[in-house]
Structure formats: C-alpha cells, structure tokens
Amino acid sequence: MTLRVLAAMSGGVDSAVAAARVAEAGHDVTGVHMALSANPRSYRTGARGCCTLEDARDARRAADVIGIPFYVWDLAERFDRDVVADFVSEYAAGRTPNPCLRCNEKIKFAALLDRALALGFDAVCTGHYARWENGVLRRGVDTAKDQSYVLAVCTPEQLAHAIFPLGDTTKAEIRREAERRGLAVADKPDSHDICFIADGDTRAFLAERLGTAPGPIVDETGQVVGEHQGAYAYTIGQRRGLRLGRPAPDGRPRYVLDISPATNTVTVGPREALDVHEIVGERPVWLAPPPAGPHECQVQLRAHGEVYDCTAEADGDRVRIRLHEPARGVARGQAAVLYDGDRVIGSSTIALTSRVPA
User: Fold this and answer.
1) 38 vs 276: CA distance, rounded Å
2) Which stretches does the entry tag as region Interaction with tRNA (predicted)?
3) Cα-atom radius of gyration of the chain, to the nearest Å?
4) Which of 51, 195, 297, 310 is labelled catalytic?
5) Active-site residue, 297 included
6) Does 180 lie in the same domain as 78?
C-alpha cells in the first residue's frame, strides 16, 4: 500500500536518509523543512544549534538528490510560544525542562502532524532512532543514539501516524548509506545543543529574558554561603559556576540540591545529598496499559541517561516511582520514562523527588 508521507527534513543526515528510505520503498514522499526561528542565523558553528539558513539549504539539496518535492513551512511563532516560552517559564519556576521533548510533543507531532493530516498525508516521517512496531514504541537498535526517551511524550494516536525508518540501523551505517546515496550531508556534524541557543550559553539566554534577581545561596543548615543573580540559572546537581564565598567545612565540593523560586533561594550541599529514592511524576502519557498496581520495570530520567530498576504505580493523574538504587541529580521538569526492556510503557514529568527510601 502506497502512503502519502510528509518527511520532516532538518538539514541533517538522519532526516535525509529517512526520507530517502521511505521514497525508495515506493511511497509518495514530500519533504518539508520547519523554519522555527523568526531570524535564523546564516551559518551554524560546528555542532551548535540547528534550524539555520544553511540547514534549510542542506535539506533542499537532499530533497533534490532524492527526487522529491520540497517546501519550507514557517512554524516560528508556534515554536516560540510552545517551546521557547515554555523553556523560559520552566526555568523561572525552578524546573529544568527538556526542549527536545516539548518540540516533539508540540511541534513535530502536533503542529506539523496536524497540518500534514489536514492536507491529506497519511504519515509523518522523521530521522529519530526509535522503532514503532504494531502499536509499540521501542528503543532504536543503536543504544548510543536511541531517541525513544524524547518520543515518549507523544500519544499513541500521534505515533500511529509516524514512520521512523532509522530505528533498526546504527548511526555509522546511516552515514555510510548517505555517502552511497550521494547526499552531501553524509559528514555533517550532529547538533548537540539547544537549537535556539546557538552559542550554548543557557545562563545568558535566560538572563536576557528574565533579568537579574539577586538572592542567597545557602547550605543545608540555612547559612548563607554565597549570592546568585538569578535562581533560574541553576539546576539540580550543578557543581560548577556556583561562586561560593565560603568553602564547605570539610573542604568537599558542593552541589545544587534545591531551587526555590518562592524565596529566590538556591540550596547547596554534599554530593550524597543528591541521592533520590522516590519520584512522583505528573501528566502521564501511557503507551501501554498503565500499571494497576506496583509494577517492576526500568526508568530513564534524562536523555541518554542511566537506566534504573524501579517499581512504578499509576496513581490517578500521577505516577509513583520507587528506585531500587538511588539516582543522583534528578531535576524537576525532566521526564521520567518507564520501560519494560526496550519497550516504552509511558512517560511523566518529574514533579517531586524524595531522598527517603521506602
């Protein structure tokens, strides 16, 4: 059966090969590049950022080589509202967001998919390293590049219209395939930074939008040990850039343990105080039947982060997760994605953490 497929083409090697594979399979493919910045930079710097004019041109050239129609869709206003503004407000609230999750949830599998379906397309194709098989989201076979974590916020209804052609392939193989296909992006560096902060300076980006708001940095006893210019510039587990005026009594490094926007206070302490044994997640998205009772599974707490054995239980509009071994530096606002082996059970946003074992 021939499908009408809209291929999201970022200008990178992954999305180019994904589009080429779907076209080669005999489907009717149209390429589209999402213009997400109202004032895109002309060129990216190494692997920093994406969505530049250069990326749009690379996507167009790839589409020409593949032999498919190509368009640029302006989604800058939607991206600024749903991703950038959300990013800023989450930091202002003392949480640490993941904009790639929000982009998948609000842009690629909402704004883009909705428009594609309205235009009569059957599916959207992307270059994510993940597998969607018979209604099940699984990790990509390349564990180093697996992106099932950032896709776990999408609903089953959204994923039912998704095609991930790269899930069964390693990144090294994709680059070799791109070269064989004559795609000029075969050796293009991956983007590793937040796409709308091209210089990588998150603190300066937030300061420009939130201004300065001096406040105290305190230790676990409440004693003031330093001052910050904005609590939003810190994240749980941070060690560098604290600029403390007073060393710890034992001389050991101190880490950010908590951020309180209500009092504009940052709390620091020893590394072991970062241990988290229990997590409460909110706004769950289930890709498998939610566990009616305690369920033994695994949880991943950040993109490409460590996986922990846990016991999870659905509790209304929340998920309670008890870690078998403590995790360190768990930040509110990140996603907790539950797995059974390589299968995604569901995701939730980390709202509360506890250092007290069950």
Assistant:
1) 40
2) 145-147
3) 22
4) 195
5) no
6) yes
* Residue stretches of the annotated binding site for ATP: 8-15, 34, 127
Task: Using alpha carbons, select from 145, 144, 86 the residue that is nearest to residue 110.
Answer: 86
Q: What is the pTM of this model?
A: 0.92
Among candidate residues 103, 125, 297, 310, the one labeled active-site is 103
- Domain range spanning residue 216? 212-269
> What are the structure tokens assigned to 115, written together?
């428009």
- The answer to whether residue 22 sits within a structural domain is yes
Residue 186 to residues 11, 26, 173, 295: CA-CA distances in angstroms?
11, 23, 11, 43
Q: Tokens standing for 127?
A: 């270059």
Last residue of a domain, one of 187, 222, 248: 187
Tell whether the model's pLDDT for residue 200 goes beyond 90.
no
Would you place residue 50 in the very low, low, confident or very high pLDDT band (cuts 50, 70, 90)?
low
Name which of 286, 17, 335, 34 is nearest 159 in CA terms: 286
**Is 103 a known active-site residue?**
yes
Is the pLDDT reported for residue 52 higher than 80? Answer: no
